[in-house]
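User: I'm curious whether this sequence folds into something compact or stays loose and floppy. Could you predict its structure so I can see for myself?
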Amino acid sequence: MDKNGQLTFTDDPLLNETSEIYQFISEGKFREAIKKADKLMNVNPEYPGLIEAYRTAKFWSNREKEVRKTEEGKKTADFLMEEWENYEEYASGSGMINSAPYRAAMRFIFFKASNHYKLAFQKNEDTVNKFDLLIRLGECFLRLKEHQYAVETLEYAKNSYSSNARLLFILGESYYHINEIPKSLMNFQEAFLINPAEVDLSLIEARPIREIIAIIIDSGKKYRDIREWIPVYGVIHDIFYIKKNINKHHLEILKSEVYSLENSYVKLSKDEIEETNILPRMLNKYLWLYDYYENQNVNPENTDQIRSRLLNLDYDLFHEYFNSPPHKKRI
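Assistant: Here's the prediction. I'll summarize afterward.
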């Protein structure tokens, strides 16, 4: 007790013992965690975090036998990641997401999975899917907040697999957390250009992306998939303020993609357009072309044509953008 007679943390007889259960979980000592949680629940079954710790330890204890008999390397790592998805669903339904036991389990499971992915990579295991190994390893590091390791892993993978949206958005998130903001934004924008559907928003904590999502929500517009509109709103609100220069090969690909999207777009009814992702993807690609002709290979005629087309496609969205002061790349 303190001098006013209030209960302090040091007076709480179960605090240290409950913290010990969390420690057991973070070390993978699930049986010890179950035994201690069971004992404490006989003392105070309502104690905060106790039932969550028991359920978490029980969940993973039930999978220890399967882990032991699974081949080390990729198979064990994949099993752990698949079971983590099952645990997340269970934790969400039980109100345990982001609880102390949840975080403790995450630390153990992802460290263990990352070690097995590293082992698989070192053994040159399953070379056909080595890229998948690196992506999963990068995601493990991201979830563990080991962002420098995530960057090193994914930059290595990027040397051979640069055009992968999942790689790029995880890399963008990781760069953000080591304060490499221009690199973060560049990777995010490339990811959204390639395939917004591969961006897992549950992994995104980066403030620029969260800001864009908030702007879209505040707009009151009900979009089919908010991910498709993030790159568009990111540009018009000057949050995606830096882009990678594109070479002639990528320029031709962009132009071809826009041409194909336009051909499909004009054949669709308004309702059909709203049921697809064709409009935001076309707008995003047009914005890349606009940036190219405005800043990289100046061509006023092309920029005027693209500006007119964007205004025609969504006047409300682009009118203010094109009438505001020139946007500067803040680096």
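Summary: The chain has a mean pLDDT of 90. Residues 14-122 form one domain.
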